[in-house]
Design a protein that fits this description.
There is one protein chain. The protein is α/β, with parallel strands linked by helices and 260 residues long. 44% of the residues lie in helices and 19% in strands. The protein contains ten helices and seven strands. A seven-stranded mixed sheet has the order 3-2-1-4-5-7-6. The protein is globular. It binds S-adenosylmethionine (SAM). The site of S-adenosylmethionine has 21 residues, from helix 1, helix 3 and strand 4.
Length: 260
């Protein structure tokens, strides 16, 4: 009972945190996906794993609808889910005229969608914030059709890489000279770190940690993709501070399948 209650509180805190960031989320580097090389790099990564055919896709934690835009541009039929009404309302406005798109206010860890109803489940920057990853992966497995694909983009946000630590020091110096960036993820950092401390992956989400959990949920054919082409594309248009930000964390793309 105690566990359930504290989990509910944690979820409320997570939802509240993102809701408060909804209006400025797209202003923080790395969230909005601008047209051009960065958009193309993300699209290429999705196409490589989902294939060229239109699919029925469940996008978990769609936030302000940036990945949604990619999925629609690739011709997929998308159900875009988030548990923050504030985030969803930004996404709804952005995609007012979109065809083949349905929004859903629901918990990504238990979406209550029918079994075997999606060809693919896609999410960016959700897995690190799951409160019960084992149960969530089991739910996702159920919702996929046999042969369906789970594709997610995430990273280890708990500890910068060695190069990242150097980049981080340079960012502190730049902040001192040109002023801090109020929209970057450091904004509301006390609340962010209080949430991190209570998450199962709060001390780091790595491929090594997540693979056995996916395996236990029944996923197979694991493929690990590199985030480097996306970071490289970001650097083509980023200023110095944002270029340094592309070096901070170890990111990965993970794709796996439900057996036929
Ligand atoms: C870092 S943002 C990522 C948004 C979007 N995926 C993107 O990459 O632009 C995290 C999002 O996950 C949502 N979220 C976190 N936990 C969730 C859950 N259990 N169910 C539904 N949405 C969740 C938040 O509301 C927020 O919109």
């Amino acid at each position: 009972m105690h566990g359930t209650l504290s989990n509910d509180h944690l979820k409320e805190d997570i939802r509240d945190y993102w809701s408060r960031r909804s209006q400025t989320f797209d202003l923080a580097f790395g969230h909005r996906i601008p047209e051009g090389p960065e958009f193309d790099a993300w699209a290429a990564a999705i196409r490589a794993h989902l294939g060229p055919e239109p699919r029925r896709v469940l996008e978990l934690a769609c936030g302000t609808g940036e990945v949604t835009r990619l999925l629609l541009s690739l011709g997929h039929e998308v159900t875009a889910l988030d548990f923050s009404e504030a985030m969803l309302s930004v996404a709804r406005k952005k995609h007012e005229r979109a065809k083949g798109l349905r929004f859903l206010l629901a918990d990504a860890e238990n979406p209550m969608e029918p079994d075997e109803s999606y060809d693919a489940i896609v999410c960016r920057h959700l897995v690190w914030t799951l409160t019960t990853p084992e149960q969530a992966f089991a739910e996702w497995h159920c919702m996929l059709k046999p042969g369906g694909t789970l594709l997610f983009f995430d990273g280890d946000w708990a500890a910068p890489t060695r190069l990242g630590r150097l980049a981080s020091r340079a960012i502190v110096l730049l902040d001192r000279f040109i002023g801090t960036d109020p929209h970057y993820d450091g904004a509301m950092s006390d609340r962010h770190s209080s949430i991190m401390q209570r998450l199962p992956f709060g001390d780091g989400l790595t491929v090594e940690r997540v693979l056995p959990l996916l395996q236990a949920a029944g996923f197979r054919d694991m493929t690990i993709g590199s985030h480097t082409p996306i970071a490289r594309a970001q650097r083509r248009t980023a200023d110095l501070r944002n270029t340094l930000r592309t070096l901070l964390y170890r990111r990965f793309i993970l794709c796996c399948r439900k057996p036929v």
